[in-house]
Amino acid sequence: MNKQLLLGDEALAQGALDAGLSGVYAYPGTPSTEITEYIQAAPEQKERAIHSRWSANEKTAMEAALGMSFAGKRALVCMKHVGMNVAADCFVNAGITGVRGGLIVVAADDPGMHSSQNEQDSRFYGDFALVPIFEPSNQQEAYDMAYHGFDFSEQTGEPVLMRLVTRLAHSRAGVERLEPQAPPTLAAVEDARQFVLLPGIARRRYHALLEKQADLLKASEESPYNSYVDGNDKSVGIVACGIGYNYVMENYPDGCPHPILKIGQYPLPRKQLMKIATDCDTLLVVEDGQPFVEKQLKGYLGNALRVKGRTDGTLPPDGELTPDNVARALGLHNEPLYHVPSLVEMRPPAMCEGCGHRDMYTILNKVLRTDFPSHRVFGDIGCYTLGAGAPFHALHSTVDMGASITMAKGAADAGIYPAVAVIGDSTFTHSGMTGLLDCVNEQADVTIIISDNETTAMTGGQDSAGTGRLESICAGIGVEPEHIRVVVPLKKNYEEMEQILREELAYHGVSVIIPRRECIQTLARKKRNK
Ligand SMILES: Cc1ncc(C[n+]2csc(CCOP(=O)(O)OP(=O)(O)O)c2C)c(N)n1
């Protein structure tokens, strides 16, 4: 078959398409977004009417995909790592229900926090849910694992968690495609006992899941993605997971002198681990993210001193692995070939000139700083989070999607006045609406600003689930219509914006102010594409 130059995300997407995918369900999040965008643009999407519309959040995506699997079809769920926290309720229980059509859940982790608020390692979720995990070391494996992963999911009856990291998701390599398959014809689930997790049934299913672990372990031990290659220098054996394998091999262009165990499928292949532990004096674990394997290995081997990695400082405890820090851990001398000129060094992002969020913050700061010195502003996640930095310094918190409204409520409950929440339109429909219901039910004294740019701008301008309906959603949740105020954030409207803000701050109940102006990036893109 032909070879294509693909991002890791794209390779995975193409693998899923070639495996007879029926639907992708996802909420955008770097570095996972390109998987769904690739499927949306693929010719197969139109030919086979593959579901590819964005979901409102990761939980709804996970649940819809499980429903598609229930119906006997192959489904893919994609999210960034923190999305796993949102999807976790369904994800963990999907291990217990099991699946019918193949189900692959992709969690794209972001070690180094290029665009995230933490660097949690999704492999812990797979372990927690007792489901198999695939971790590709390169783009070809991302393709192969997606292509074969649906079969594996159907054979084991379990969802497969596929863990990517930013460098793999966002770099390109040549990928060899396999023969495209038609979607399998599996009947929908008929036996209600599988999916009805009443305690009596759930106990039986959980027991069966525990018993299945022996088969999953055997599959890992026989997996083509887990391989042991011997080496002469047995002073150190290397256990290299996912992209970590690439970083090791980059340092040994003529072949690795040490025994090396490459890990791409979990649960960990015990036999190979015991072999490398027996063969070598010490072990170095090279894994991007948290010391998931390292800690398990210490548990297996008992003698913690023999296992080196992120927990003992041989590799840095946080941030990304790189070929350089892996070289140092291997005791290799490694001088960078080039020094990065300061012009291209990392700089903090900033809101675009002309962005409506800027006008919103200009007025918010003006009113709060002059008249309400004890104010607190609870922020959320999106382009407007950049209001925390210069020149606005407007936010006192940013924790997780939706937390602006609920944290403002808790602070208001504790007597803070005014308690203001700033949230974007997509984040509001992702996980702000339920918090708004809490506010309405208790008539909390909060002023909520939904800064509506009619898109999901931060992740590249995907459709936003509530566009055109935010006022009716707020009214439906129970906000009084006279306290739902819409304004166009432009300089010419500053006086009106200021007045509305003062009126709603003076109201001791739930107010929603919606400054609405289209994102200048999506607007420019529309004009270019006309
Ligand atoms: C749980 C979770 N899912 C996804 C993301 C990625 N993400 C960050 S901000 C954002 C959406 C922002 O959209 P919106 O609230 O409309 O604000 P905008 O960027 O358009 O200003 C997304 C999807 C995340 N940080 N956390």
Structure description:
It is built from 20 helices and 18 strands. It has 530 residues and is α/β, with parallel strands linked by helices. The protein folds into three domains: 3-221, Rossmann fold; 227-329, Rossmann fold, CATH 3.40.50; 356-526, Rossmann fold (3-Layer(aba) Sandwich), CATH 3.40.50. Helix 17 (425-441) links the parallel strand 15 (419-424) and strand 16 (446-451). The longest helix has 23 residues, at 199-221. The two termini are 36 Å apart. It binds thiamine diphosphate (TPP). Residues 27-29, 80, 82-83, 86, 381-384, 401, 424-427, 453, 455-459, 464 line the site of thiamine diphosphate (TPP).
How would you concisely characterize the structure shown here?
The chain has 530 residues and is of the alpha/beta class. The protein has helices at residues 8-18, 33-41, 43-48, 58-70, 83-97, 123-129, 139-156, 166-169, 192-195, 199-221, 243-250, 270-279, 292-301, 323-329, 356-371, 403-413, 425-441, 470-477, 494-506, 520-529, and strands at residues 3-7, 23-26, 75-80, 103-109, 133-134, 160-165, 172-176, 227-229, 236-241, 260-263, 265-266, 282-286, 307-308, 376-378, 419-424, 446-451, 484-487, 510-515.
